[in-house]
Amino acid sequence: MSAIEVFADISCPFTHVGLRRFVERRKELGRDDVQLVVRAWPLEIVNGQPLDPDFIAEEVDDIRGQVAPDLFEGFAPSAFPGTSLPALALAAAAYERDVATGERISLTLRDLLFEQGVDIAEIDVLQGLAADRGVDFDPMDTRAVLADHAEGVERGVIGSPHFFTPGGGFFCPALDVRRGPDGHLQIRADLAGFEQFEASAFA
Known about the structure:
By secondary structure, this protein is an alpha+beta fold. It has a single domain, classed as Glutaredoxin. The protein has 8 helices and 6 strands. Strand 3 and strand 4 form a beta hairpin. Helix 1 packs across helix 5.
């Protein structure tokens, strides 16, 4: 088994697209030997303030309308979490058990948020998911999250998601994202960038 590291926030819609595309391509290639280790890149710490649900809703609309009509079907701005730190703590605890559990919980948390409209800051939600997967965690213990952030800074993480493969780092390889003069995102699938990323990830 090999692992691809990615520093990301659970509340980042671009990460949701990137991880989904990675998992889909992995399945197409039959490369279940390549696992994802999703590390914490908490944007509320990076930016010094919580993410704005209305701003994220605008990004989701732009992403869904331009490149991902199959995603974000159940996204609800009213259920957007006030913090992602407890959910990131759960993901970190899951990886302490094993990589497969960590990957599954990382993906499930994003599915709950972006596809099912669930507030992943709700402790009952997190504890239920932890119990289902046999993970012990303390939602208030963010030491692993802060350690990931510190390591990401040292390794030159640009933003969420930032992948590290044997061939190098790739920031948001699935999408080419720019902001137009009207303030809205201009997004297209970055086919060349994703091919380079794929070649490195599945080498």
